[in-house]
Model the fold of this input.
Amino acid sequence: MEKHIIELTVNGRLREIEVEPYLSLLDLVRYRLLLPGSKAGCLTGDCGACTMLVNGRAVTSCLMLAVQADGKSIVTIEGLEQDGKLHPLQEAFVSFGAAQCGFCIPGTVLAAKYLLDQNPNPTLDEIREGMAGNLCRCTGYTKIYEAIEAASAAMRGEKV
Amino acid sequence: MTADAQESVIGRRVVRNDAYKKVTGAMTYADDLYLPNLLHAKLLLSPHAHARIVALDTSRAEALEGVRAVLTGPDIPPRPEPTAIHGHLLATGKVRFYGDPVAIVAADDEVTAAQATRLIDVRYEPLPHVTDQVRAMEPDAPKVHDDGNVVSAGRLRKGDLDAAFARCDVVHENTYRMASVHQAYMEPRSASAAFDPSGHLTVWTSTQTVHSIKSQLSRWMAMPENKITVINIGCGGGFGGKLQAIPETYVALLARKTNRPVRLTLTRREDLLTGNPRKGLYAEVKIGATRDGALKALQARLVWDQGAYDTYAMTHGQGPVTMGGLYRFDAVDIESINVYTNTLNRGSFRAPAAPKVIFALESAIDELAGKLDMDPLELRLKNCLTQGEKSATGQQFDSIALKECIQRAAEAVGWGKKGPNQGQGMASVFWFTLQMPSSVFLRIGDDGKVYVTTGGSETGTGSIDPSIAMIVAETLGVPVKDIHVDADSSDGPWDPGASGSKTISSTGYAAWNAAREARQRLLELAAARFKVGVDEVSIREGGLFVTDNPEQAATIAQIALAVKFQEGPLSFVGRFAPRPPAFDPKTIDNLSNGAFNNPSWGTHACTVEVDPETGTVRILKYVAAHDVGKVINPLGCAGQIQGGAFQSIGQALTEGYSWDEEGRPLTTSLGEYLVPTTADIPPIEAIMIESAPGTGTFGAKGIGEPPVAPAPAAIANAIEDAIGVRVTETPITPERVRRALREKHG
Done:
């Protein structure tokens, strides 16, 4: 089977890699680039555990082929922390107890980042609508709402 | 026992230690593990709901380059006793449900393994199948097993039922159905196994109970327990679905056959097809009261769908006990029958029988309230059991906050305040804390830190991380940050695992006992050092001092170092064993439960809005009040209530298995098996009531399971309040609401 050489930026680092045409972006990141933070929850794009940012947009990477990521910039959960400093969303998820088993959290945090990048001051209804692509089985979502609200306030420079 | 003058740790918000790993992608789960030389396993599943395996030929699969082993039914050891705990691995002779595993392959990579399963030649002779448990009880129904379709039947009986119904002015009867639901943990089941050169087997898995998995493996593999180590790598949710050594045994058998590490990670489809979801229930309920609203009689016939094998079959026995622990009745007669069908095995799922029987009972209570022309809230307040009263099985309740739960839930939801097409409903639950024996090692290091080793498993609830450290910190007077807790390995001391709402009051109780013993020893050593009486010494923030003369002080580190080579290191073993609760054994016949240990109650209330044109139900407000005894870890406790209530709402509105005419499940992906999203779930208000202490750690009652029970009934009740129709089958889809409206209004 003919393989393809693709070039993409992952968490700020340029990578050149040879891939099979059927390899998903999720599998590329998890098994070839050895960044296992992004999770395989369903492989049908229903749960959001595989969410990554591709050129800034939240994408279910299980449904994207690696070859489609050629020339693009990918951010995974491992790339959110900058110079040892956590993103306000990561801080808020920790302090509000929004992570229980944690399996949905990488995808959820990145989807929340995308939401806040698009809408820095979302209402609760806008948060609920924006996060509907990320299933969580443990928390019942309540503390996830609280963490996103607190993080967005912190990012706007408001006191929580 | 609290640390002297130190601000209490128990009840304070303490962040879990693994939270940073979880938000940065550094948390390792079972499929993230990199093992050299790893083989990948893949299952072949049955395409028939019921069939004889006429011929099975694996030669073409074994000949494929890269395939290292193929196992089929005859390669699997006989299922160890008790079969209820040891899961069904591979079909032999017959397949009994669509998706029944027939073979498993180990190959160099996942693609080769998948290709190999397609090269296994199986010839089937399809047989008639049955997917409904009521049908399966009929004498001419297809037989799932040779000795008949009834797995077991039991009964709870108290008082004279006929006389009690004769006294009733109003009687209500109805039937209710609840679909089977899957735990739908976000992390599909995954396990890896490897033998080291000495023959020691290590299994890295996602599980709720490392010790039970080890014991099960010991029997399947015919190996002594000390040659096996099971590590819970990082559990992405269990909820009862990760108690049986199924993926673990597959990979252990393959690792032994190939002498290489092997990993099996199920796809979501495979997990939905071969998992062990909650039993389905068909229930007939008859309930009666006198005109003033005093309940008199309850009769029920519960018919459960067990699926094709008897894993965790006994849990149906919890159902009658749950039904008998909320209200005062003169007579109760509940029959509970568990039935095989040609559908996937059922297993354990967070409060196994409770959501089902509560849906039936609490729906019937509201319907009876309607016939009595009484507010359902008033009917509940009038009849709910209170301090000193007994359940239907004669268990006396000495610490019960059910009435307060009902009142607080009604108040929090704003009972009585609703708009057009809006309605309110409530439902309560009675459940147990399955306390079981546990042991914990505790050592005080000469660095002043406290090292705690448990064989418990952290599945995300927070009952180990950080609750164990909080319990020890509170008891010992040492800061939480100086308590280091090891868990998740079966090399630790024996522990019953994370299920049955038990961890804080089993593992936690053993840790509490160890810490109390350690505290006493520290006080004695300090007293000897300061030359005062033991009762004259205090501990605070890791330091000991004479209470009335604080300048006479020493750190725990100093004391530990001083005795290290004399009286030995400061090591303690904490043990805990529960005391079973008393009840009247004459009330039950052939049921797994008669009473609930360290019981708790809870009430949920909701306001919903129903669109009569589409049948869509929107939850406007949802509150959950629980009788928790004592809040150890408020972030964890609220998290359990909110997460449990959410799973309960899913079981009410969107989740459920159904099968087509061929016996194939219709929900084999998360696009069909609908876990509620943020769009479906408003913020859930968790009300934690501490007025009725339990017999658990610091007076705690288990909280993991009870919140999963009330929503289906609370929501069905709210829908009837909103638009005047009663839906008696879950999931309460828009279609079912529309159908109920059409039946009523034509």
User: Anything to note?
Assistant: Helices of chain A lie at 25-32, 88-95, 105-118, 124-130, 142-155. Chain A touches chain B through 57 residues (CB under 8 Å).
